[in-house]
Fold D-lactate dehydrogenase (cytochrome).
Amino acid sequence: MAWDIPFAELRSLLGERFLTTQAARAEHSRDESHFTPVLPDAVAWPESTAEVSAIVKICAAHGCPVVPWGVGSSLEGHVLAVKGGVTLNMNRMNRVLAVHAEDMDVVVQPGCTREALNTELRATGLFFPIDPGANASLGGMAATRASGTTAVRYGTMKDNILALEVVLSDGRVIRTGSRAKKSSTGYDLTRLFIGSEGTLGIITELTLKLHGQPEAVSSAVVDFPDIGSAISAVITTIQAAIPMARIEFVDETAIRAFNAYEKTTYPERPHLFLEFHGSPSGVAEQAELAGEIMTAMGGSDFRHAATTEARNQLWKMRHNALFAAKSTKPGCIVLTTDVCVPISRLAEAVLETRADIDASPLTGPMVGHVGDGNFHCCLLLDPDDPRDKEAALDLAHRMAERALRLGGTVSGEHGVGMGKKKYLEEEHGAAWEVMGLIKQALDPQNLMNPGKLVKEG
Amino acid sequence: MAWDIPFAELRSLLGERFLTTQAARAEHSRDESHFTPVLPDAVAWPESTAEVSAIVKICAAHGCPVVPWGVGSSLEGHVLAVKGGVTLNMNRMNRVLAVHAEDMDVVVQPGCTREALNTELRATGLFFPIDPGANASLGGMAATRASGTTAVRYGTMKDNILALEVVLSDGRVIRTGSRAKKSSTGYDLTRLFIGSEGTLGIITELTLKLHGQPEAVSSAVVDFPDIGSAISAVITTIQAAIPMARIEFVDETAIRAFNAYEKTTYPERPHLFLEFHGSPSGVAEQAELAGEIMTAMGGSDFRHAATTEARNQLWKMRHNALFAAKSTKPGCIVLTTDVCVPISRLAEAVLETRADIDASPLTGPMVGHVGDGNFHCCLLLDPDDPRDKEAALDLAHRMAERALRLGGTVSGEHGVGMGKKKYLEEEHGAAWEVMGLIKQALDPQNLMNPGKLVKEG
């Protein structure tokens, strides 16, 4: 270590909310990725922006790295303290600070999860739509520029954050915007911190845009004879500008896993899971138009989820794809990866990836937020067989290279973390160097989640 | 001058596309703002990214400022070469490079105007919605994070740009994204350059999102007994989540100017100008819901613009507000300014501003993109009477301070330029210093549109 951990100062600041126990460190040594766990040197639980600022100041004085932590649901090793240092578990900063129903915005602390927020909002008629599947912390979702099933309609985190409060690497606290809907006064620091994965500062407060709970919601599933026709149906639906709230691709392998895990009896064919939001007549009109397109592309009749319970069941099942996949191969671990391509290249990207997995020794269900051109595969591997891991990494590598070849990006929503850093030079060219210049300007000591996202000096 | 203009090198690069004539310099000495013209030392007309890069490299070697220029429609002195140097007129880089109808995106050069783009797109069924009124260049619109009448539905420039190509201060060329709809791979440089007003680099190519031309469009006007009830109607409409395509406030003074300039006979009362986009039934439903709200708030019946011609006439009139205002006071000049506040504070902001103007010696119609909480006033002043200018600047100052007091921003869409720079410390606090750090990192010589947006070292 080139630095010393300021144990005494942090303990005196935080008392029992600063731990160096093996248990606390182990609990913060991994996320949902396949990376080997790495123990931070200590874990701190701040309760206020002032405490985060004080911790960062102390750490900065000692050259000690600081790694923010939400719920640990990241998928590319974002929260692993690969250079040691102090992990800041933000889950005591989990309050909803202000609901401005009349302005359709809300101010939250970063440890608040998306489900907790929506529970708190229930009576207001408003909701926060971004849904990455996991019940992630909103700070973590901002830090990774998360999106998920509803992004096709409501956008990603970058479209749904009005302003942030951030503690910089020297402990200074800044606010990056106001509650006004738009502004042309200066560099867009809000968007700069969204997706910065803790490398430029620690998000301590978020002002989020809310949306009206739709008057009517309707969900349906439809199956197709093959992947190509399912994807063609998606492309045509999006091009027809039907304002889909969700349009999710679920391949045959994933359907088999769902049927086994959830005891459902879906036909073992590629599916689309759909949702429509709007007025009752608007929803009916959207569903009719989408239905006509799906039928023309060889899809089955819509099977509607008639009740709220059936609808919740459908999306719960979709969100449990990872667990369903895992259950098909007892003892396995999962390497999950995502890419995003222009929608005109989606069929190629999905078909080539499916063929590539089929030609490998591995099983890998594919699911995707296909309205955005974004899809995932969950590769199941035996943790004790190094050949499996190698095969999985090879597949993920070819998937990333394929996305770049097709004019896309190596991650639509999971982020860079440790797993995708090796592609950033290829994806961004000289723009990656510019990211490095910004990192250097804002964190000259390289203490904010070091080892992630940017090239190291 | 601390630098020398590399006349010979630039002339040898550009031939007759590099001019130092008084006429060329005078033509590029002003925008639509009230600022005293400032002559650049020379004007260059590049025709390619490679030429922009070469120009910037030559200028950088001589420490010579570079100021990008679109059509000169900026409103806060953005394009004035206040430190001298070379102005880059981008209007020879005005091509539409590629239309990807299947992906609903388009690649354009920065000198292409929004109207030229939409003319080119007419046959595709797609359009680019952002409409700041002026037929601005798309590069300029990106640089100022422009928005306008349709932002309430389609967002601002920040929501409608997928990627940029930018020439940095050392002549390096970067690309800030791909054609994928979303990405989580690294800092959002696209959004960093949007709104950077030429201070971080020169935009040489834009990849824009397109939208489907709405199947049905319907416009209407409605008048109200007073400003308060008009604004209340806006707030309620937005809170009811009616997806308004346009909802424009036009005050009594502006209506009087329209009636005089356009020979119309609108009742001399505050108005809302509305537009609905969607399917025929969707548009009818939206109009009905909005109508009910407006009536409940004291509005008149909708007077629909029945034909495409009538609709175009309505929006042309709205866009000509500046000229209509000018015509009411022969020989006057106009100081136009905008602010944006959370919509719950909009009534206060507008009413206080109206009262403030009424108590001044000046006339000033007010119009606004009120669905976003954004409004403008056009203050008419006698250029030969310094008291008028002083009164106008005082009013604009109080409007800015009022916006900040109400939790808003000193500009919703016009930008910083020279006019609003003095408010950035108050609006952004320490975040303004962070903007300065980024400027310093990307443009260490301070050659890219110097004197604008950031604090000077």
Summary: The mean pLDDT of chain B is 95.
